[in-house]
Amino acid sequence: MVQALTSKPTILWVNGSFTPASYYATMAENVRSQGYEIVVDTLPSSARTPPEQPATMTEDADFFHDIAEKLADQGKDIVLVMHSYGGVPGTECSKGLSKADRQEAGKPGGIIRLVYLTCVVPDVGVPMKESVPPLPFIIGREDGFMEHIPEESAPYTFSDLPREEGIEWVRKMPLHSQVSFEGKLTYPGYKYIPSSWILCERDELLPPDFQRNCIELIEKQSGKKVDVYNFDAAHCPNISAPKELADIVIQAVAAA
Question: Which of 6, 9, 161, 214 has the fewest CB atoms within 10 Å distance of its CB?
Fold first, then answer.
């Protein structure tokens, strides 16, 4: 059944690297408490462990494409919310799933907006590893996975938490696929689907100027303004400010 016009869209969350779904649990509960459906799952690139084969960015994109397609087939309008690295596979996974594309094909539901939370958003043909500032606290391993150096990562990844608390969160992070950072964007979903940006003003990992450059790229490619929501938080507000993050996400979703 196609959703009624008054129904709320479903939020599909695409995580950042090194972050399991559990890292977003408190934020998600705050979203649900305000009457929104939210789907959060773990990227294959963060879910696998040695000796499994590290997942590619394309596998991450395919994983979330399948989830989004199933939601759309249920007649649901979807707002895709992406965090950090999630901006790459999230953008990629939107191919063929926009509300307009599905209507043209006689199908219900679809993605009505992309919301980027302090994301990496490259141009077509550019991988994440060539798009971000240097990240010396992330090291590659011989098994094809990567890990953070906790004491060096915490001041960037969790810069708005007390140092020791940030270090503990880094230590609990899973490994992440090295090859996933090499995957090149092939589909500029932001060119075709309206976009919003939650700009984390105290982010030390993807600083505000980096985020503004990504916003400029989207606006140049799409020819449309990006709705920007300034947020007084660092790179992982899902941990440091989950309630406030839920509120600003809902603000962006409600405007979709």
Answer: 6
Can you give the pTM of this predicted structure?
Answer: 0.95
What does each C-alpha distance from 245 to 52, 204, 228 come to in angstroms?
A: 34, 17, 14
Q: Nearest Cα to 172, choosing from 236, 105, 92?
A: 236
Percent of the chain topping pLDDT 90: 95
Where in the chain are the domains?
Answer: 10-254
Cis before residue 51, ω within 30 degrees of 0? yes
> Phi/psi class of residue 83: alpha, beta or left (left: φ > 0; alpha: ψ in -120 to 50)?
beta
Place of tokens 């394309």: 58
What is the CB-side half-sphere exposure of residue 103 using CA atoms within 13 A?
8
For residue 117, give the nearest of 19, 211, 222 by alpha carbon: 211
